[in-house]
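Q: My labmate handed me this sequence with no annotations at all. I'd like to see what the chain might look like in three dimensions before we decide whether it's worth expressing. Could you predict it?
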Amino acid sequence: MTGRGGGLVRPRLDERLLSLGLCHDLHEARGRVMSGQVLVDDRPVVKAGTRPPTGASIRLRDERGHPWVSRGGVKLEHAIRSWEIPVDGRVCLDIGASTGGFTEVLLSHGARQVHAVDVGYGLLAWKLRRDPRVVIHDRVNVRHVGAGFLPEPATLATLDVSFISLALALPPILPLLHPGSPGIALVKPQFEADRDEVGPGGVIDSESTLERVLRRVTSMVQGLGLEIRPLLPSPIPGPAGNREYLLHFRKPDGP
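A: Here is what I predict for the chain of 255 residues:
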């Protein structure tokens, strides 16, 4: 590819994955990049438009050891089993569905329907796109969903969002939840912290900073009138090695 000045323009990361035969199409490639499954010179890269150096080593993170379409499935499965959350027969709202790790776990536990919501387009794994129990809501910013977004109230919500705080993502979905319904949110401290609290590479290394950020998150959730349980550490780290936590919340029963 040649740029405006006549020089060669390096291919995008998603295009490189396709040319290397590591993904079947650009939708899969972009989903894998955004979910942290792609390593460039052994470092995770989460932007599909990145243009790696010509000689860079590009590979997929070793995903063996779990059956899900993404590592997110490992995290949600851990939460559901640890908290013994019943999923069977529920209408679920999955915010930040991406490739569908959370969606797949919900279906495996008997969800009647999963509304898979993501600001991106075409990221959901093909086998989930074909599942009649999955309703796809692409190009939807969670901050802009309204009370009539779902045809019926959801009875379980999950959130796995990046580059946005739960303080912005959680309030808009509460009107979509039936009273008494539980929810599980993946807490990513680097997206909840102030800019000066995050170290190089987007990693929070300071224990005191991490604790302070987590306290802010739990206080924010309680301030929304939700009941919560103690945070549960994620069984695996985030893409850049950040520690993540699972938060169980419950919308209070109605009058």
